[in-house]
Amino acid sequence: MSDAFQPIAECGFVADARAADYHRRWLVANDAGQWLTRELAPKLAQVSLELRLGYLVIRAPGMLRLDVPLDVIEDDDSVRYQMLVRQQPVDVVDEGELAAAWLSNYLNVPARLLKLHPDTPPVQWPSA
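Predicted structure:
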C-alpha cells in the first residue's frame, strides 16, 4: 500500500497523498502505557480514518465519529509522556479525555490516543 497511509498506527489506511505527513503520527496505548497493536486489540483494524477540514476523522462500527485536530502545537508538558514502541523510547502527547473515552468504549479496555511529539526521533515501527 505505497499510496496509502496510516495516521494511527494499527488502524485503517487513508488513500490520500495529504496523509503522508501524518503517517503513524498517532498510536493507541492501554492504561499501563503499552502500545496496542492489532494483535493485542484486534478491533483497531476496524477503525477507519480520513483527513477532513484540518481534522483526523475517526470512525468505527457502532460509534459516533471522533474528530481530532491535525496540527496542534504540543506545548503543554503536563500531557507529555515517554513510552516504548517495542524497545524504542518515544515522546508522546495525550490527546485528552474525549479521545480516551471513545477508544476505551470501542475497544472495551482503558485506552489513550497518543500523538508523537514533534521532537521525537523517527520511530522504527515494526514491519507488518
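Summary: Residues 63 and 94 are 21 Å apart (CA to CA).
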